[in-house]
Amino acid sequence: MFPTHIDAVTVAWLNQVLADDVPITAFQAEKLAEQGRTSVVYLLTLTYAAATNRPAKVVAKFSAGEQYVKKALQIQNVFEREVLFYRHFGSRAGIPVPHCYAAEYNPDENACVLLLEFIENARQPDLFHGTVAEVDLAVEHLAPFHARWWRSREIPAGIPCEYDRPDLYLADVTKALAKIPREHRDNVGLTVIEVLELWLQHHQQIAAYGRERPLTLCHGSFHRQQLLYPTAENDPFRVIDWQSVGLDSGPVDLARLIVTGLLPEERKTHEARLVARYHALLCEHGVTDISLAQVWDLYRLGIVRILVLHIQVFAHFSVKLMIEHWSKVAEERSLWKILFQWPQQALLAHRVPELMRQLAATTPSAVSGGTP
């Protein structure tokens, strides 16, 4: 058995998973200040019986304790996915991730535990004011990772293909759009609403189009809050939070990073260079079956994916109350901008509605179930 909450962690279990000649004699647990909605994360400081090279601190990550959260997430098997990622890929993922000492999942309770390396000299970037250099560094790691698993047949069962389940978000997007009052359509963004309405009509064709393109292992939520950056030249870079890992189009990860990671003016200035660099790195690492033009089309559809995920917040909360809440936040730190305003500007810049209509007219709606 393994612990599914912090109170169940014991010295005996820690010694079992961190086996060494020098035993752990005690530990202290501190809940980390930054917590997600789906997990509970603690920093464990370990005491050993004698001097050792074993880690002084580790991170313990548990599935969220609230039963309604677990139930809502079970259909997306996010806890199982992250455990599978660390078990199956881990240090050979092709992108820097924390070392994993233990990864366990209980399907009956939809509960998990991860015991991970604590990265001492790393920082999480500012969500609202990241730098171009940070995005550059992330692209340098992202493309080789995608190339490593390009058309791979090593993806284990339990890590889904995003295009094999085109109806997954249908109910939530439908509900969310229906809840947007007419007086707040401008707040959400008329182009955002247009694109999501097109997605509702043509999600089968869009999924079929993506399924016919080369697929790879993707992070699935590759934004700056999932990245740990070095604080000095020789410090580590790491990618965390693999709950959305899946088989997908690589440029979807790239779109999430750039569109939500750069201020709009910086995106306009650097976007073409970053997308071209991503494609060049794919080619350098052996990918030969995707053109730069195809990368751009999948990148444009990646912006749609961003909004499909973001709009679901309205399926569960009042649009009016959320707009009122965000209007009270300082403009430069408004989450509203990242969720809707920045993506809408990218939709317009890349004529995404036109692309969606074109795909709907030329792509059959049947989704293939073949291998990548």
List its traits:
Aminoglycoside 3'-phosphotransferase, Chain: A, domain 2, three-stranded antiparallel sheet, 10 strands, five-stranded antiparallel sheet, alpha+beta, single chain, 372 residues, disordered C terminus
What does this structure look like?
The protein is of the alpha+beta class. It has 14 helices and 10 strands. The protein has helices at residues 11-17, 67-74, 78-88, 132-148, 170-178, 185-188, 190-212, 250-259, 264-284, 292-311, 313-316, 319-327, 335-349, 352-362; strands at 24-31, 39-48, 57-63, 100-106, 111-117, 122-123, 216-218, 227-230, 238-239, 246-248. A hairpin with a 4-residue loop joins strand 4 and strand 5. Residues 367-372 have low confidence and may be disordered.
The structural domain count equals: 2
What is the ordering of alpha helices and beta strands? HEEEHHEEEHHHHEEEEHHHHHHH
Distance between the termini: 36 Å
- The parts where pLDDT drops under 50 for at least 5 residues are 367-372
Remind me, CATH topology of the largest domain?
A: Aminoglycoside 3'-phosphotransferase, Chain: A, domain 2
Q: Residue share in helices?
A: 40-55%
- Mean of residue pLDDT values: 90
CATH architecture of the largest domain: Alpha-Beta Complex
Q: Strands across the major sheet, in which order?
A: 1-2-3-5-4
By CATH reckoning, the class of the largest domain would read Alpha Beta
Number of strands: 10
Please report which band the strand proportion falls in: under 5%, 5-15%, 15-25%, 25-35%, 35-45% or over 45%. Answer: 5-15%
Main beta sheet: 5 strands, antiparallel
What structural class is derived from the secondary structure elements? alpha+beta
Radius of gyration: 21 Å
Helical segment count: 14
* Structural shape: globular
